[in-house]
Each structure stands twice: as structure tokens, then as C-alpha cells.
Design goal:
By secondary structure, the chain is mainly α. The protein has two domains: about 80 residues; about 25 residues, no CATH class. Helices cover about 65% and strands about 0% of the residues. The longest helix has about 40 residues.
Amino acid sequence: MSEKHLSSRFEADLDLLSSKLLERGGLVEAQTAHALAVLNEFDSALVDDVLEGERRLNAMEIAIDEEVCQIIAAYSTQIERPFCGKASKHSTRNRAGIPQQSERCGHGDAG
């Protein structure tokens, strides 16, 4: 896959993810306002609506988290590290598999 095509696809994936995050943010705001209205009105009938909204938001959060993981997995080995130039052939990662500073910026053991 060409670098330009890969970069365009990566940008498109990030744009879609950004849209989903903004959508979720709007839903969180609406959910908060709805929950406050329920508290102010002491309307127990509306509690189920708030709980259903919370379930939807939680499901959306999980879906977004999974999408982030898929994007990271798909592009982590294909895109050069930003601001650092070429990747080092000798990578060092911590126990969680996160690249150390020396790997991210190609500065050997300068970490």
C-alpha cells in the first residue's frame, strides 16, 4: 500500500473517530441535562430513560475504545513515528508493550 494512500486512509479513520467522539460528547451533555431534570422534578418515571441513555453511552464508549485499538493495531507498524524520522531497528518496549522514548524518537538509549 502506498504511503500516500495509507496516510489518507489513516486520516479518514481519525476523522470518523473524531466525529464519533463529538457525537458521544453531545449525547453526554444531553444525558447530563436529562438526569438533572429528573432530579429537579423528582420524577421516578423518567429514571428509566436516564438509565437507558446511560447504557447507550456506555456501549458507545466501548465501541469507540475498540475502534481506537483497531486503528492503533492497523497503523502502528505502517506509519513512521511523527516528528522522529525513520524507526529504529532495535525497539525497546516496557511491560505493557508501549514504545519507550528511545524507540519513539529513534535516539537509541537516550530515552
